[in-house]
């Protein structure tokens, strides 16, 4: 299932944190302001190669927290956009915690990224797509630079949909994923989902333990050992 | 050399008796009497300033002098070729680290109250940026961790290696080992105060919380550890893990109550416990779970009003979360000095920012309990019909709310491994559902209350009492 693997970076399967970065993030070198540039370059690498390293990005935000400089806005926005691709993990909030209120209030792009995150967190997918369409700044200033951003958001939406639904109408999927009829057909094929045999406007999603919850009747079992003491003592009482 | 046990009792007794409102004798005056004991003077100054912070108002001079004294103390411990020949009780070592961080926090607060600072103070603050600088504080804690090789020791203990050999010349001494260990907890706290929740938990990844570790040797340390771990989980939206952390320490505190009512740390422990009850109440409101009966009872006793008002819809409910967060959160700090030219008190800004993030999260899931209560009444239900029950919600918005319900009730939960690890799990065990197009199918798990175990326990108690009574009668 997409999104279920640990996304803390270093332990991501098939991808390892470069040694140069590990030497910074995993040691006290993470406090050395001279490493800001290295970590910034690493953010750019992540943007271009569609990789993600949460802890390295948090380390960069921490360096900014200790060495405030208004010039770093571009990277803060990039890190926040990257954190959105980690949904459903709340990485965005963890990044936000390291930014000051001041920065949020003075930079509309950061504020808008937060609004976009709120829409995704509230699963208001239709509103999310409308919001990013209406706000060119956030598209140009952050999201577009992040390779594969839309695909990641769609993966998150798909994941949450599978959590909830066994079947869903194609129209709802089109709205949530912001895809045309043709595109949604491709998406369904990519995910190896299928269409209902009787009604091809309905998409059938894979059955998981989340969307097919089983009723568990829990019954209490009392073992004989538990009663040993009581039975044993009943002799003595009488 | 083992100092007399006067630390925990006599010093506090003398303080109660003679120094309730006054300072202990000036260190310089004491120095004239005990000239040849530099170490004694350092430890005396540490207590002297700690007392000033606890009972009186420390001036800027006090803050600077106390900082320098900590430098002297840690230089003495860290910058000697050989391990220093000193042993102090665990309690005392914990208090040193704890107070060091407290004074750092207090200083950050002090300088951020720009309005309250005089011109002379601002001049000193601007000039002496090294004092209580965040990097210097972190440096002390990291150095103690490295010197004691505490992480290596913990790994060896966990994996069955040779702890003594791993510990090395310094770490094998209780003084270094415990200072190193307490510094890990100290770093957990400092990182949390700076709102770096991931790094905070990462710092203690070699400490196994589900086993009784060294943290349990000092109650105040035990409580601190769980408070910050629980708080980090809360901010990481891992409510089940937060609940587990808070409940386990609250059970511990209530069971050992009789031992620490007499302790000089009693006040600190009860204040932290109260805060944790408030945090727990919020976690349980966000993620309804059955918790330990006794803890549940104390939570209801303190917060019954809050608990019912948190269920209010919209802003009324949020106000309660706000109130509880303010009461129970750590006082966050800014790692950098404020702009002294802007005469504004900015000491609360870091806390306000964290609260804003937390409340936004709470706001996004306000509808979950309402939806849950409606779903409980049905086995199947149309989305459009559920929408009519909710105010201002059309069918599509209602469908969104159902997806949101699933999204928010799936959280990472610790199973094994380090504190940061966790797999996605369902947080609401008793009710689940799925959608088939426009129809909601609901399944309810009737969690049977386990009564047999309870009755057996009670029977055994009666049995024991009966035996005691008969024996007493003879």
UniProtKB/TrEMBL annotation, chain A:
The keyword Protein biosynthesis applies. This is Eukaryotic translation initiation factor 3 subunit K. It is found in: Cytoplasm. Pfam families: CSN8_PSD8_EIF3K. Keywords: Cytoplasm, Initiation factor, Protein biosynthesis. One of its GO terms (molecular function) is RNA binding. Component of the eukaryotic translation initiation factor 3 (eIF-3) complex, which is involved in protein synthesis of a specialized repertoire of mRNAs and, together with other initiation factors, stimulates binding of mRNA and methionyl-tRNAi to the 40S ribosome. The eIF-3 complex specifically targets and initiates translation of a subset of mRNAs involved in cell proliferation.
UniProtKB/TrEMBL annotation, chain B:
One of its GO terms (biological process) is formation of cytoplasmic translation initiation complex. GO terms for cellular component: eukaryotic 43S preinitiation complex; eukaryotic 48S preinitiation complex; eukaryotic translation initiation factor 3 complex. It comes from the Eukaryota. GO terms for molecular function: translation initiation factor activity. Belongs to the eIF-3 subunit L family. PANTHER family: EUKARYOTIC TRANSLATION INITIATION FACTOR 3, EUKARYOTIC TRANSLATION INITIATION FACTOR 3 SUBUNIT L. Keywords: Cytoplasm, Initiation factor, Protein biosynthesis. InterPro entries: eIF3l (IPR019382). This is Eukaryotic translation initiation factor 3 subunit L. Component of the eukaryotic translation initiation factor 3 (eIF-3) complex.
